[in-house]
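Q: How do we represent a protein-ligand complex in a form that can be generated token by token?
A: Start from the inputs.
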Amino acid sequence: MRLGALEAGGTKMVCATGDETGHIEERAVFPTKTPAETVPQMIDFFRERAVEALGIASFGPVDPDPASPAFGHILHTPKIAWRGYDLAGVFRKALAVPVGFDTDVNGSLLGEVHFGCAKGISNAVYYTIGTGIGAGILAEGHLLHGMQHPEAGHVLLRREEDDTFEGCCPSHGACFEGLASGVAIEKRWGRPAVELSDRPEVWDLESRYIAQALVGTICLLSPRIIILGGGVMEQAQLFPLIRGKVTQLLNGYLDTKELSDMEHYIVPAACRGDQGILGCLILAGQTVNKG
Ligand code: ZN
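Then emit the structure tokens for the protein with zinc ion bound:
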């Protein structure tokens, strides 16, 4: 069965075809402009390839509750043209196929659970740390949604004593995203993260904020693995710093086999950037199997 996958991001839309085994046939990337400009191109892509189901993992906030009238809509995003847009519904109508839908981070997590470093694990967390911050959560084998979906980028953190940056979240100032996103790094240090690789003080501070957030996650959700993806995490020097600081902050309070093997506990994504699109293929397949 040919499945369609759409990883809907704030700057680009990745479309692909493939199957449930994780084989990706073809892909195309469209810049995220307005729905009127971008959506018809994507519909053509999937229509020409006669996909039999589509999985969408979208930037948010979104409504991922199939029982809700706003299921598959993008909600109160700062990207005005997409606010209130019925993303899943438009594709369902245009292609006349079942459409599975979830958050971008749950999509990436699903990819890692089926094809990457969280295979066979039923409690896992996937963070994307880039322009924004979010997390997908798998709890006892189920993707967690709750009343809408988790907003892990907006947990409030304790500001580090040597940090004078006020934080850049318009709603909270100094939340995780306000202190540690790619945008926060650029505002604090005056240059984008990619140009700061050789500044150890940048990554020392960044790792302290990420470690604070992860300790909260570990205590709250008890995941067996934490996967860190997104543009900021391409700075590979962050991983050992984060692992060390998480151990330090936990201060021996928890004693599990996972935490005693930090290199396999806090890890980079294993699907080499394809985790989102692979997760969409799984979402598509699940929609068909649900009938
Ligand atoms: Zn915030």
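Residues 154, 169, 171-172, 175, 177-178 surround zinc ion (CB under 6 Å). The chain is about 35% helix and 20% strand.
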